[in-house]
């Protein structure tokens, strides 16, 4: 059975898309067959891998998903591009009734060839994120090491718990990832301690440091492994990949 990881946080700028892209790349480089699905109308995950958004989102078309999947520069990493079309966003956003069932069925029918599927969500807890949660088996939550890191998490966790209940336990917590980690700041250590005390073993041992390579790589349409394979960011996402694989 494949794993479907929903990468979600209600806040922007926490490393959500960076994590979705680079964890996908790391898993593929580790020999896994991976599909990254861009569900964010901003389509940043699509452009970060050097691809263009589609005119119509593959998940709402009446055709097999495999017909819309594109290859990337990394072997075994494929992409289902996002769409900025408002009509598609509206259709994806329906999480109740037959629309939700159709989305889950659409995903289930097209993902058998992949060991890992990652869904990059919008920076919100709106209907698109809820649809992604309903279609996933695990949720991975990046948290920035800053003062407001815990703010709003209660609401997000409530949404996740509701999704877990609605999926009869199919969805589980995959892990919490500390991002933009600066060991030279006392605040970073305070946030680290607070998050680990509150969430316990669900927090990954790996932390993602502040690294300019992670910020620059998307502008070149590359993952950090292609852009700067010896950078601290590349090392961190390699470590995260190992943890994800070990948690199988």
Automatic annotation (TrEMBL):
GO terms for molecular function: hydrolase activity. The keyword Hydrolase applies. The keyword Hydrolase applies. Residues 3-171 form the AAA domain. CDD domains: ParAB_family. Keywords: Hydrolase. Gene3D superfamilies: P-loop containing nucleotide triphosphate hydrolases. It is an enzyme of class 3 (hydrolase). Its EC number is 3.6.-.-. It comes from the Bacteria. PANTHER family: P-LOOP CONTAINING NUCLEOSIDE TRIPHOSPHATE HYDROLASE (PTHR13696), PARA FAMILY PROTEIN CT_582 (PTHR13696:SF52). This is Soj-like protein. It comes from Roseimaritima ulvae.
């Amino acid at each position: 059975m494949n794993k479907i990881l929903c990468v979600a946080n209600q806040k922007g700028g926490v490393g959500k898309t960076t994590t979705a892209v680079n964890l996908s790349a790391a898993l593929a480089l580790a020999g896994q067959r991976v599909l990254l699905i861009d569900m964010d109308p901003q389509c940043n995950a699509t452009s970060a891998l050097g691809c263009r958004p589609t005119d119509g989102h593959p998940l709402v078309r009446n055709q097999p998903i495999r017909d819309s999947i594109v290859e990337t520069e990394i072997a075994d990493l494929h992409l289902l591009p996002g769409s900025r079309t408002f009509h598609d966003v509206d259709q994806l956003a329906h999480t109740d009734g037959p629309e939700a069932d159709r989305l889950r069925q659409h995903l289930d029918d097209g993902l058998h060839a992949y060991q890992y599927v990652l869904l990059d969500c919008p920076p919100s807890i709106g209907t698109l994120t809820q649809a992604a949660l309903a279609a996933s088996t695990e949720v991975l939550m990046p948290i920035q090491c800053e003062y407001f890191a815990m703010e709003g998490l209660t609401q997000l966790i409530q949404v996740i718990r509701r999704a877990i209940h609605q999926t009869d336990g199919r969805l589980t917590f995959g892990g919490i990832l500390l991002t933009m980690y600066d060991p030279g700041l006392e605040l970073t250590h305070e946030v680290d301690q607070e998050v680990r005390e509150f969430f316990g073993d669900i927090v990954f041992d790996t932390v993602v440091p502040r690294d300019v390579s992670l910020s620059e790589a998307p502008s070149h349409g590359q993952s950090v492994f292609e852009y700067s394979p010896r950078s601290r960011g590349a090392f961190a996402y390699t470590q995260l990949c190992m943890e994800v694989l070990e948690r199988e």
